[in-house]
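Hello,

Following up on my earlier ticket. Below are the two sequence lines again, exactly as submitted.
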Amino acid sequence: MAEHMAGNAIRTAEADSVEGRHDVGTGVVRRNDKPAFTLSVDGEGVGKVVFDLPGEKVNKFSASVILELGDLLDALAKRADIKVLAFVSGKPDVFIAGADIRELQNITIAADAVAKARAGQLLFQRVHDLPFPTIAVIDGACLGGGCEFALACSFRLATDAEKTSIGLPEVTLGILPGWGGTQRLPRLVGPKQALDMILAGKPLNGPKAFKAGLADACVARAFLDIELPRFIARCLTSEGRDALRANRKPHGTSKMLEGNPFGRMLLYRGARKLLRKKSRGMPAPFKALEVVRQTYGGGIEAGLQREAEAFSELAPTSECKCLIDCFFASEALKKIEAPKSGSDPAKAMTSAAVLGAGVMGGGIAWLFADRDLAVRVKDISWDAVAKAFHTANEYNRALVKIRKLKEGDASVRMQRISGTVDFNGFRHADVIVEAVVEDMGVKKKVLAELENHVRDEAFIASNTSSLSIGEMGRALRHPERFVGMHFFNPVNRMPLVEVIPGAASSPEAVAAIVALSRRLGKTAVVVKDCPGFLVNRILLPYMNEAAWMLQEGGDLELIDKVMYRFGMPMGPFTLTDEVGIDVGAKVAKILAMGYGERMNVAPVLEHISHDLKLLGAKAKRGFYLHQDKGRRVPNPEISPAVKSVRDKLGVTPRALTPEEILDRCMLTMVNESARCLEEKVIAKPAFLDLAMVMGTGFPPQRGGPLHYADQLGVKTVVDRLRRLQDRHGMRFKPSELLVGMAARGDRFFSPASVDG
Amino acid sequence: MRERLAIIDGLRTPFCKAGGPLAGSSADDLAARALRELLVRTDFPVNRIDEVIVGNVAQPIEAANVARVIALKAGLPITTIASTVHRNCASGMEAITTAANRIFSGEGEIYLAVGTESMSNIPLIYGRKMTQLFGNLMKAKTFGQKLQTWMGFRPQYLTPIIGVQVGLTDPVCGLNMGQTAEILAREFHASRQDQDEYALMSHQRALKAQAEGRLGEEIIPIPVPPKYDAMQSADDGPRANQDLAALAKLKPYFDKVAGTVTVGNACPLTDGAAAVLVMSESKAKELGLKPLGYLREYAYAAVEGRRMGIGPVHATAKLLDKTGLAMRDFDLIELNEAFAAQVIACERAFASDDYARKHFGRDKALGAIDRDRLNVNGGAIALGHPVGATGARLVITLLRELRRRGMQRGLATLCIGGGQGAALAIEAA
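Thanks for your patience. The regenerated structure is below:
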């Protein structure tokens, strides 16, 4: 309702402007048949520019729009009759979404980047220098270049609409605000608030933007028709303008902190410390911090130049290209409709059920409850069922703590979860997710029993991480409704779901599970029903390779450190501990059975899991001893265990260099990734890389295993794999796809999207 | 009533002592769990529910019209109406009888009747003087005015009013519920020994019912906040090691000098909720449902507040008049155990020709109650008495026991703080 009314408000404004045009005449710029900007001025000297980019759903600054804006500014400069000018959007829910990211992707050399930044900076400086007050009327997304444009205006009026978000998310794409954002935002809201926004890239909604001083007023979208003329009236008098500006003054602690050089030093130091923790391996936020620190308090022109220079140091880098590729891949993935889907089958779902109340079952139950689905959780005992409630509550607590969830809402969500020890209530479920122990026999038995208690129309999904969906489906009378739906642990934080059609799965069922994954806020990738599917098939050999290296004499902590420094969220042994050594070994065995020699489990891993029965973080003992508060020290049991395996196999230990460690870890992943493409496990290289980023925490600024291969050069990859094959055996045999590509000089991605 | 009210099914949460495992759940959370489970198990379409009626005594300040909050938390559609009713300790029954009235006046067809109470969460409140001081502070504009207001503060203003205590005191006769039980103990000569023996029997029966799984049938396990790391599946009141010697050691609680009522022979403060799905008998037939049983008729009666515990006798007398039934027609009786003294008083009044003559103009006693038919699975002394919920629990427990025994008719009756009684004639399907 509110949105509809707001739409009316905008249309009304346009209608006014048409009349205005009639009265006074217009200065309309036409580069194309249809202009992006429409200017009108009424008899009172109130001008209005409507930005409505033809043929697009959103307004954005492309090269042609920038040209048009230049022409508009020329025309405006000649108008003596304008007393105040409001910029409004002709698009619903969007003011200006930002710059055209595709153009950013084409920047390959620093000089281009500087030129691009300077052009925008100069243009916005001209907006800033207009001889009359300007107002950005922000009702919808106002991001990146859009926000920088708004900052160049004299005043900003925001609405309280849900879609109104104002901010500078540039660092999430590996760049920094290059059109004056690092200059104008700190000047407007103070360096603390500005850094909060720029370094995290998180936008503010209307009310928060008003509180921060970024917006000079925040009004209800429904009353924009009344409030905008009022705001314009305030901007018409110098008293009104002074009053608006006086409102922006920062107060309280932030003023104390920012007002003196010592306080600012503390501020910058704190910001850097936070970045080291949160933005490891991402150059852009550090660079943005540096720019603000160096330029705050200085002149605007010098600041803009420094900003453009810093922008040019980021835009052409592979980190930036990789992040943009990730962004495009995830956008592309959202648009892919699963085969033959009509209307959204997930929308109608109201009720779900989960079999198995372990960490995964509990996490999935939490997710359903979080997305407005009643969910029934079954396990064999009430004590087991309690674990699901516990997990869900933990996830809610985490949200309440960071104020993403209110206590009352948390209570309502907990109420959506109910437990049972029989199949009571399963007839209500529109979808059932099985998350019992990873054992084909158990799963088949549970599924066969389940089918007696669910509706014929209900979809059934299995959260298996590696077992064959086709095989599992044989337990069902109606395997066509059965699909793999692999969530990653922890469910509340991992954005990926692998959707796996089995041999008998119907396209409708696959479409429904893909749609459900999206409703649950996850990114769904459809992958083939092969052991380990995609992510585990690539990740497990990497963990296994780490164990091989340990066995050869590699240092456990060094191996972890090398991969952590590379950008992985944790090293392979820490990861194995977190996953659970038993779970890891189990999946590794399933893969070894499926793929044969190249996935043979390293004997040392077998020994530690099978003979020593070490479990990992959940039992506080694994490769590391896990102490309180996430601290860990290497487990002294490991070294003698490794030695005994070495002695048995007659291996003479030797030290491994960081370079060899990185090569063996990464090339193992690259090689298996190439095999997955060969076997069409996933549709596109871009989707494979995105799945690895989202499913394993592979550093997004490195793009994924296939981007890594491109950066290294496929030929180098093949050469090194061959050398490793000579030394360590068949598991390093380069895949045919890689060999062929190396011979042809091919890459996985077009050259523009990696280091040029 | 025009026809019988069909009680399709009924469930309850465990009843747990205040401050115990359910203390982290509010009255609305408890009821919502019971209600959601009832809807799941009966497999009844939620959009057919006409209204949710909830009986609740100490209505949570953060959930005004707690019924609406419960309905939404339990997953009923936003279009389902909901109202809260209050008849003190009979609020759970009031929810059922109100539903019956609405159904037979044609206002709706299918109702959820709920009773709930979280006595753990009844707040302490500031006294009148402190409240006034806060009010004045808010009115004070200048610093001087504020300072002057604070000058009027006295430390004793901070003494809290204990919500539970005030709630269990009759503001008209000025007596606490325990004190009214002492009055009945004297009137009917229910000695300390009589009371303790009765209390012990309640625990023993409850334990047996628990062990044999009879109570488990009506209970749904509840996750235990704030950590949600365990499920509470059983009532925590029944004491396995209770004996007469231990009971005899307890000091009288309400009349510390000459009293007989102790915490051992009175019901504890308790948290819990119970819910039933109801509709007319004919509607149930039309929908092909198999009800747990029926409510045939009900009656409420009032007595002096200081004798509130005798309410069941008066309400039952009215019920017998209304239905033409006699006490011997009831195969089983659930008479709520607020206090052992009060149950014994009722027993003696039911059996007394004098009492019947004096109060009901009958020649003969209403009819003695055989203890083998009374509270056969234990009562509130062992199980607890979440005031708003108990009325609904009595109906559920009674119906299920009638069915188990293949019996026909039962009486569920209850005394009500402030001086009333409720009596429901229940019939098995």
